[in-house]
Amino acid sequence: MTANGVQTGDRDLRLDLFRGLANWAIFVDHVPNNAVAWITARNYGFSDAAELFVFVSGYTVAFVYARTARAKGFLAAALGILGRAWQLYVAYILLFVFYVVTIGYVAQRYGHAHLLDEFNIRLLIRDPVEFLKHGLLLEYKPLNLDVLPLYIALMFAFPPLLWVLMRWPNVALAISAGIYVAAQAWGWNLRAYPAGHWYFNPFAWQFLFVIGAWVAVGGATTARGLIYARTTLAAACLFLLFAAIVTLAARTGHAEMIVEPVRSLFIPNNKTHLAPYRVVHFLALAIVVSRLIPKEAPFLSAPWLRPLRLCGERSLEVFCVGVFLAFVAYFAIDLVSDSLAFQIVVSVAGIGIMIAFAYFKTWTREFRATTGRRAVEPEGIRQPRLAQRER
Length: 391
Fold this sequence. Notes:
By secondary structure, the chain is mainly α. The chain has one domain (13-375). It has helices at residues 13-29, 49-72, 74-109, 114-118, 122-126, 128-136, 147-156, 158-167, 169-186, 202-222, 224-227, 230-251, 260-266, 276-292, 306-313, 315-335, 340-376, 379-390. α3 (74-109) runs antiparallel to α7 (147-156), α3 crosses α8 (158-167) and α8 (158-167) crosses α9 (169-186). The N and C termini lie far apart (47 Å).
């Protein structure tokens, strides 16, 4: 760790592992009426894969670009962040187009007009110019395309916050907490088109993103005593147990078993505004997991976990593929069979395709890097290597 608190160690494999796990869970959760989704975290606590995705994204962005700022200056880091935000925006627009075209084609080709309403694209078909305009402005979003616009908004707003984080991390966290509290108190949110507001309120969800960034620039070290205290671990475990009981009761239709004050506070689970108990639940889960799986755990680099790690390393591409596959899986279940066996087959096949795509993207990246090195390598260096192979 450097003097200003920015971590400079090797890559934390837990980030790739859990971001890959989040991508798998988001895919499974986005398939409507999919019994396999019962294995994901959303059924056993207040938070779910969305919190994990946002937290890890905040951590990664701060970790990477804080080092860039130290090595090349803050302007280079800010331009890097904005460049990454632009990449996210382009990826979202491409996903938006392919997603809408596919749903529209399937609805027309197979006579499943209900898909136009379920995935919120009927109005787009009626008035494509107006809705495409608002789609480009991130105001109109078909079903399941809400996470990337949130990520894009957080990235575009991140450069000034990074500047504060690198100098006064606790001040940056306090500013973020103030925005979060204001959003809860006064209902701050961005407007959606043609009505309503963003499903993921960026004024609320930025708090979890900044918590991840704060941890990356030394917050975990600052709070190490609190995190590793036995009392904290016990409280975290008790809260996770409580959350599991309440969530399972609500998910299984037995909410009446929960006493009224608790039921009115925690049911329904307020995801749009990132209710405080969702933040507490995620942090409790993070504390328990960090105690159970330290950064140096040998199994993190095990070959059998490589598919999951690659899905985390190639997170953006795998996420986009997963969102697209969620619709394909839903249509396959609706068209072929809704049996549990077929739902398992479709879910496993979707995750398999995501893994294959992650491997393909990794291979193409390594191939381009190798080809680029060979292209710029002086002829006099290549020849001895060739001669050595001939010998």
